[in-house]
Amino acid sequence: QSVLTQPPSVSGAPGQRVTISCTGSSSNIGAGYDVHWYQQLPGTAPQLLIYGNSNRPSGVPDRFSGSKSGTSASLAITGLQAEDEADYYCQSYDSSLSGRVFGGGTKLTVL
Amino acid sequence: EVQLVESGGGLVQPGGSLRLSCAASGFTFSSYGMHWARQAPGKGLEYVSAIAGNGGRTYYANSVKGRFTISRDNSKNTLYLQMGSLRAEDMAVYYCARVGVTYGPYESWGQGTLVTVSS
Predict the structure, then answer these.
(1) What is the tens place of the pLDDT at every residue in B66-108?
(2) How many interface pairs between A and B have CB atoms less than 8 angstroms apart?
């Protein structure tokens, strides 16, 4: 059981918009710690997608956006493309555990 | 270009030991905190351990505390993870990652090295 809760899977057709939620608690997201998102393409290492709740590293398309409110965060992907099919993970810091925590991951399928 | 290259993975028996290395290049290694994370086959990501840029502070997940030791040699631009008393549940791909600021993201990841724990 992951400290941060994500839906196991989401799907959407090309061109559509999907969102992936990441629910935490008062010891992590709700305590004000930033949320970061990673994309893991099949058979590869994870890559940073969103940092500091809503910031995109250079090279990440603006189709990807992040937000945070209360004890939750969300990743939105607009204009879905086949190449977006991957696993997505949220991450934050948990003060009770004194360490980083990840969500369980969400598999995005582009129909 | 930032590069992180892990090595040292392999097959080890339950109860055995293994040392992983992560060779860094393309940045001032001593200026960055470094982390280890792992991913069991078909599973999600899990934080394992962290170390400050100067090596002065180390941190561990509860699941590995007392069994794993993180260290770094800034003169060799290399991060290490000494793993002991290995269990079946430690079997995973181990990644090293660079962190720029406290509570910041894993800015760069290595390609990972597979640790298999089996008799």
Answers:
(1) 999 999 999 999 999 999 999 999 999 999 999 988 899 999 9
(2) 59
